[in-house]
Amino acid sequence: MKCSLIINTYNNEDKIGRCLDSAIATGAFDEIVIGIDTRTDDNTLQEIMKRKDQIRLNVFYVKWDITDYSKGRNAILSRAKNLYIFMLDSDEIISDKGDLLELLDKPEICAYKVNIKNRLESGDYLLTQTTRLFPKLSNSMYELPIHEQVDFALRKRSVPILPSNIAIEHDGYSDRAINLEKHKRYYPIFLDFFKDKDKWSLGQISYMSERFNDTTTALRNSGVLGELGIAPVIIEAIITLVLTAVKMGLNYKLALETAKAQAELQQALTDAEVDKLAYALAPSFPTIPQYELRQSVKLIMQTNVSPLPKTEQTPETATEGLNPMLLGLGLIAIILLGSNKK
After folding, report:
1. Do 126 and 337 touch, CB atoms closer than 8 A?
2. What is the C-alpha to C-alpha distance for residues 255 and 93, in angstroms, rounded to an integer?
């Protein structure tokens, strides 16, 4: 089945070429649709057009609304001609096409998560997963002004979202100055759009609040998330917390304990949720046997979990005993870390 690759880019003359070359090498795409931000003032277009004889290119300029990035995504999506869409950012490469070609040949209509290796400021890597291969159901599938997602549109139509072994490498988190500037731009949008919304949205505020030391907002929303109990997004958030704790030097068992405490779980994970958590964490801990990892997850996430007593807290007393570096990371879903990088 034919597949369209969609890319957005802004001033990325030094990275767009390798991005395109990695995609063309897979042999999976018969067209590439690229939206160039109208603010671009470097040689991004010239780099793109060097590949015009290798694959069909649909390149256009789009005025990016920096208060709602989903509009730009949908503008690019609307120009794609094929049923299947693969999204790639211009600071990413497809490092392993995995089962991409086989998935496109399947008769069932499904969406797929890919594995993303994010290079961090320290030079280390964080593994995440996000939906990048999906059927085009409409011209406006992307939702949310920041970290825009197609998962909501897919779930509304009951399209299965399955794992894959496709791998992407991303280095958009490796430059501290650029990364901080990006978060400063996003923060007011988060606060405006996500306020008083669902548990998933509250998790985004918690993450962004910590980035700018707004501990009162971070604490309040992390607490609200704890009161809402277990949901699939909570599992994904625990994964993010575990990986964050490991990056801070904790071993995986202590990282699991820390994640459980920060998530403030009020009921034990079910066996199915334990399986999902262990399966998702396995790629990040290749030296630990799968059975051992699952047993650790089961032991930690199914014992000593009980509803927290409701107490009044002031901003001064609420932070006592909590790790401020993990507090604001709260419960951001792993699907978001590997998503949009402007």
Report:
1. yes
2. 30
pLDDT, average across residues 197-221: 45
How many Å is the Cα radius of gyration of the chain? Answer: 20
Exposed / middle / buried, residue 265 (Cβ in 10 Å: 0-12, 13-18, 19+): buried
Q: Kindly state the helix (H) or strand (E) to which residue 297 belongs, with its residue range.
A: helix 290-301
What pLDDT score does 174 carry? 66
**The last residue of a domain, from among 140, 170, 200:** 170
Whole-angstrom distance, CA of residue 109 vs CA of residue 158:
10
Q: Tell me if 224 sits within 8 A of 202, measured CB to CB.
A: yes
Contact between residue 159 and residue 135 where contact means Cβ atoms under 8 Å apart: yes
* Residue with the larger pLDDT of the pair 10 and 210: 10
Q: Residue 303 in contact with residue 268, Cβ under 8 Å?
A: yes
Residue 54 corresponds to which tokens in the numbers above?
């290798």
CA 211-213-215 angle, 5° bins: 115
Place of tokens 């277009």: 45
Confidence of residue 220 (pLDDT cuts 50, 70, 90): very low
> Among residues 144, 170, 196, which one ends one of the domains?
170
Query: Does residue 301 lie within any of the structural domains?
Result: yes
Residues 293, 162 within the same domain: no
* 8 Å CB contact between 154 and 137: yes
58 and 32 Cβ atoms separated by less than 8 Å: yes
Neighbours of 295 (CB within 10 A): 13
Cα 318 to the center of its chain, rounded Å:
29
Q: Average the pLDDT over each of 42-56, 160-174, 238-252, 271-285 and give the range with the smallest value.
A: 238-252
CB 197 within 8 A of CB 143: no
What DSSP string runs through 96-142? E-TTHHHHHH-SS--EEEEEEEEE-TTS-EEEEEEEEEEE---S---
